[in-house]
Target: Acyl-CoA dehydrogenase
Amino acid sequence: MRMLPKHLSSQLSSADVPQEGVDAALLERLSRQFATSASEHDAVGSFPRDNFDALQASGLVAFVAPKAYGGGGATLAQAREVIAAVAKGEPATALILVMTYLQRHSLGHAGSRWPQRLRERVVRDAVGHGALINALRVEPALGSPARGGLPGTVARRDGDQWSISGHKIYTTGIDGLSWLAVWARTDEPAPRTGFFLVPRAARGLRVIKSWDHLGLRASGSHEVVLEDVRVPLDHAVDVRAPAEWAPHAGSQTDVDAHASQQAWMIALLGTLYDAVAGAARDWLVEFLRTRAPASLGAPLATLPRIQEQVGELEALLHTNRVLLDELARTTDAGSPPAPHESGLIKYVVTKQAIQAVETALQLTGNHGLSRHNPLERHYRDVLCSRIHTPQNDAVLSAVGRQVLQS
Model:
């Protein structure tokens, strides 16, 4: 495994990026560094800017962006290595990085409809300045766009510009983003829907600091209000008829791109929450090895009952790793599974990650629930896995339909 040079500056070139993987020592160092401030970021809900400075200095912000525009062109397996290490240290940082990775990976699809000039601009902005990007999709009335419906955010054509107005929620990482891919509909007689590229510094954009959730508190997933935000016409980077956004609509290139993007999303989010469970496992093992009640006269780790339950926990995490490794392998080989099959992996991996942390809590009792220890934070964070698209009910319904109709 080649080492990603620690001296990398903002001038990282694609030739500098390792093709076999990221150096394990670098990832371990970053993970430990992020863990030292994780509880503080969680307590106050602060954006982990120091973590992203370290990621940029290590050449990892633009790691998956297309090499043609100066990015690293990393594979899904390589991206998983990074996300696993970051999430083990501070998972909100990992979530923001996942969202940036997903947006940057989509720019490299053969079917990407983004203008080349803008694709190159956002990637080079990441390479040179560590610029982050995320999609703003969810709205108070619409909910998740994955469940259908036209967005309430409207883009109106005004001369050589678009004027965009709307209200978005769950805008992960907004305090640190440079670019926003805003999901909106046009005001045309036959509305089109899609993404409009908006600079974070655009006039008319206002953030409502409303994020105060149980877990992933440092993700800064606040609300954003857009009031007559103006962008050039070519910033309508991917706008289509609503029916063309269906998973099986469009050309075969579009269908393949959707399957690949879904696999990347499932693999990286699954990796994040599996890493949270892994951090809980590591704390549990140390606790059991050192906790020696007077009534026992030996560490809890010596009890057969404890050993059996830790073995069950290991089985859950081992299964997760096998599933995620295989998903990355097939996707990198150009054969991502169908979206409903990727969804099943998300369902199993996140369910088992939650179960693993719950097992750790059962074995530690009050110690595990104390704010003096990180286990309760790991539990709050891992529960957030249930809300990411696709949600469990949508996954199981899609698979059920597939089985019953075949």
Notes: The radius of gyration is 22 Å. The first helix runs from residue 24 to 44. The chain has a mean pLDDT of 92.
